[in-house]
Amino acid sequence: xxxxxxxxxxxxxxxxxxxxxxxxxxxxxxxxxxxxxxxxxxxxxxxxxxxxxxxxxxxxxxxxxxxxxxxxxxxxxxxxx
Length: 81
Fold this sequence. Notes:
By secondary structure, this protein is mostly beta strands. The chain contains one helix and six strands, in the order βββββαβ. The chain has one helix at residues 43-51; strands at residues 3-6, 9-15, 18-24, 26-33, 39-40, 62-69. Strands 1, 4, 5 and 6 form a four-stranded antiparallel sheet that branches. Strands 2-3 form a two-stranded antiparallel ribbon. It starts with a strand and ends in a 12-residue tail after the last strand.
């Protein structure tokens, strides 16, 4: 199950005296143990598994898949962007 590492947002900021549209994408992470197939719900949960002496999990067993979702902006001459 993926977890959100970053929420999406769209805002205007003044940069160097100019109004600029700043887009921050949503970032979803799927963190999986490649040996067991277990999916973690956070980095902290995966770290706890690695640090647990009762498991065989090592840092190199963790696979991190990143999904970046960018907002559809509808750019063009009528968008005023």
